[in-house]
Design goal:
- The protein is of the alpha+beta class.
- The protein folds into two domains: 52 residues, no CATH class; 211 residues, DD-peptidase/beta-lactamase superfamily (Beta-lactamase, 3-Layer(aba) Sandwich).
- The protein has eight helices and eight strands.
- The strands form three sheets. The protein has a three-stranded antiparallel beta sheet with strand order 1-2-3, sandwiched between helices. A three-stranded antiparallel beta sheet has the order 4-6-5. A two-stranded antiparallel ribbon has the order 7-8.
- Strand 2 and strand 3 form a beta hairpin.
- Helix 2 packs across helix 5.
- The longest helix is centred in the N-terminal third of the chain and has 16 residues.
- It starts with a helix and ends in a 9-residue tail after the last strand.
- The relative contact order is 0.18.
Length: 272
């Protein structure tokens, strides 16, 4: 209780100091869930109080809520081999030396630079990603390209658009009925430069419902259901180990710290 009190006081301090205008979070212990809301959803051009039920741009938390979990389920069920060549499942990629394990643990050696990225349309960006440079450095270097490629792979495996796959394989199964790609209504603003309810991530803006790295929106209630689904299924205990070949530990899709915690963050301030 003391640690919880200190945690809540710290959150209040951050809001009062203007580190962020407001936040919504939940603490789970078994089936017991407590949700908290602090501060405002925006302060420009005027203060607007943050209220329950709003949808959040998950940014890179989309990697685990969507694409990562869909791939993990296929791996744990034996339908995908994490050490098979990635091109076995996604032949459009130009390099047959990479494995699913490397993509899931960010150890591909991919150089994420894309020349003139902001000038490319969907087909130009997809072609650039399919032919992205792969270097010899296989240490852990986090990049969204890995999960964009995993999203493309899922579309090959299921022969369906990624949004339909995630809806059928994750969201509907776990009753996350308000989780989807943008644009959405009733969203929390992310930036003055981005229309409310539209995705903030530049690549997701172009790739839309085919983007495996970002682009999902969800309310707190759906994220609670997501975490509870992980807690309820013992197969996910298999993720509590290091799957990366290298000095930095990574689980499949998730960061892995202190040999115990699975976590992921997003550019918009999201965190599981």
């Amino acid at each position: 209780m003391k640690k919880e009190k200190e945690f809540l006081e710290k959150i209040d301090d951050y809001v009062n100091q203007g580190v962020f205008p407001g936040c919504q979070f939940a603490l789970l212990e078994g089936q017991h869930v407590r949700e908290f809301i602090r501060g405002n959803q925006e302060i420009v051009p005027e203060e607007k109080l943050l209220v329950s039920g709003k949808k959040w741009d998950l940014a890179s938390v989309s990697k685990v809520v969507g694409t990562g979990t869909a791939v993990i389920n296929l791996v744990l069920s034996g339908k995908l081999d994490i050490d098979a060549p990635f091109t076995q499942y996604y032949p459009d990629f130009h390099d047959d030396t990479l494995t699913l394990r490397q993509l899931l643990t960010h150890t591909t050696g991919i150089n994420p630079f894309i020349k003139n990225r902001d000038e490319l349309d969907f087909f130009g960006l997809k072609a650039a990603i399919d032919n992205i440079e792969v270097t010899a450095d296989k240490s852990c270097h986090y990049t969204d390209i890995n999960f964009i490629l995993l999203g493309f792979m899922l579309e090959k495996v299921y022969d369906r658009p990624l949004d339909e796959i995630l809806k059928a394989q994750v969201f509907e199964k776990w009753e996350m009925y308000d989780t989807s790609f943008g644009p959405v209504l009733n969203a929390v603003p992310t930036s003055q430069d981005v229309k409310v309810g539209s995705v903030h991530d530049p690549k997701a803006q172009v790739l839309g419902r085919h983007c495996g790295s970002a682009g999902l929106f969800a309310p707190m209630g759906d994220l609670v259901k997501f975490v509870q689904a992980y807690f309820a299924d013992e197969k996910y205990l298999m993720l509590q180990k290091n799957f990366a070949f290298g000095q930095r530990p990574r689980s499949l899709a998730w960061d892995f710290i202190q040999n115990q915690w699975l976590l992921h963050t997003g550019y918009t301030g999201t965190f599981i």
